[in-house]
Amino acid sequence: MIRISFLFFSLLITASAWAQEADTTEVEDFSQYADAELAGDAKRFATQKVLDQSPNKLISIGYDYQSSYFMDLGGLGAPERVDNSFNTGLRLAANVPIISRNNLIVNLGGNYWETRYQIKDSENLNNPLARSLNKYGLRTMGFSTTIFKPFNEKQLLLVVAQADLNGNYSLNNIQPLKYTRYSVLSVYGWKMHDRLIYGFGLARTYRAGEQNVIPLFMYNYTWPSRKWGVEAIFPARAHLRRTFNSRSMGFFGYELEGQTYRIANRGNEFDQGLPDQALPINPDNVELRRSEMRVRLMYERSIKDFIWVSVQAGVRANWLFNLDQGEFYRGFTGNQPYLAENKIGNPLYINFSINLVSP
């Protein structure tokens, strides 16, 4: 698994090196793109950042840690309360610009995230979801494309499309591609001046744990003093920014993280010790709707040239952690029952990453 992960990330690094003089953006970070502008009397186009905005990350290697918390897991014929000692996970990401012109920017991105669970008394677990999480954890591997299209000096369009493979698979036993989940969003915006960009749009997203279509509001603003700013794409995330200098800045805010994960019956976890009619569907067709809100403080600083470190700490507040019977659309108003409803605690968490940012 380590060798496959290394190969995946090496390919992204190589691609990034081919385009090292261009700019890029984080996946779904709609405001962070390279500046591009024509001089003289030629037609001018809106640039993509406000003054003092946080740097764009070309390559990121991170580690995520969550403290202990409980999990009340219901249904499936084996409701159970378990204590999870901690979660850990590697986070890799890279973004590659393939077109970088003053009137069009196109990026390709890739990411790999994992969450590993350390459940106490794991040899005596009864609930099949608890057994699966403890043994296999969860993984997300995705690819994305981001298109920035300015029409003139003020008007602009952002489109982001992403494909994610989420589940309890391993890198040497990846689940079928038919379980890929697709997200897309579009934002139409205006750059009013060098300190303000705002826009409105729609997203088909899984950030709330299951498929939803939601409106978006983008707002990136820097105060005239250039000490404070806002970077937001509501409701996905919003941060108040404090700029200490060109190489150091802090943030306070939140981000909503979520996906739907296929929980395959890899080791017959859903067949062990359950009543005959406990699972009235194909046990290979179970999906976990997982969503969490991370309320946090962040600090980012350059340690040498374009190498930056980022540290964040806060509370990981559970939004959704239920099981469903396969993929379907419920939205915010649907009343279809879940296969199993679960409650989990809200631990503290820390995240550290080292990043190569664009010039």
Helices and strands in order, then pairings?
Blueprint: H1 2-18, E1 57-66, E2 69-73, E3 80-101, E4 104-119, H2 128-136, E5 138-150, E6 155-167, E7 181-193, E8 196-205, E9 212-222, E10 228-234, E11 237-245, E12 248-263, E13 286-304, E14 307-325, E15 343-344, E16 348-357
Antiparallel strand pairs: 1-3, 1-16, 2-3, 2-15, 3-4, 4-5, 5-6, 6-7, 7-8, 8-9, 9-10, 10-11, 11-12, 12-13, 13-14, 14-16
Structural description of this entry:
This protein has 359 residues and is mainly β. The protein has one domain (2-357): monomeric porin ompg (Porin, Beta Barrel), CATH 2.40.160. 7% of the residues lie in helices and 54% in strands. The chain contains 2 helices and 16 strands. It has helices at 2-18, 128-136; strands at residues 57-66, 69-73, 80-101, 104-119, 138-150, 155-167, 181-193, 196-205, 212-222, 228-234, 237-245, 248-263, 286-304, 307-325, 343-344, 348-357. The protein has a 14-stranded antiparallel β-barrel with strand order 1-3-4-5-6-7-8-9-10-11-12-13-14-16. Strand 8 and strand 9 (212-222) form a beta hairpin. The chain is globular and about 70 Å long. The protein starts with a helix and ends with a strand. The model is unreliable at 1-40 (pLDDT under 50).
